[in-house]
Amino acid sequence: MSYEVRDNRALQRYEIFEGGTVLGFSTYKIDGDQISMLHTEIDKSHGGKGLGSILVRGALDDARGRNLAVLPFCRYVRAFIAKNREEY
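Above: the chain's sequence. Below: its structure in token form.
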């Protein structure tokens, strides 16, 4: 399966897609040079496929590319960063 992570700036959230279908999202708020990661959610019918990790990795990579400091208020994002310390 091929998944794509996109930044939906109008809704202030990163979305993960398969084809044209949104399977999950991670909401954020940007203030200056900081991005607060607020909540991550994957559609229950697509759970257990690692989509949360793909989504958060895409969001963090985008934030890094934009030189934004990440404030991980979302517990899933916090756990992902802790698990991948060497990368993030």
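The helical segments are 51-65, 75-83.
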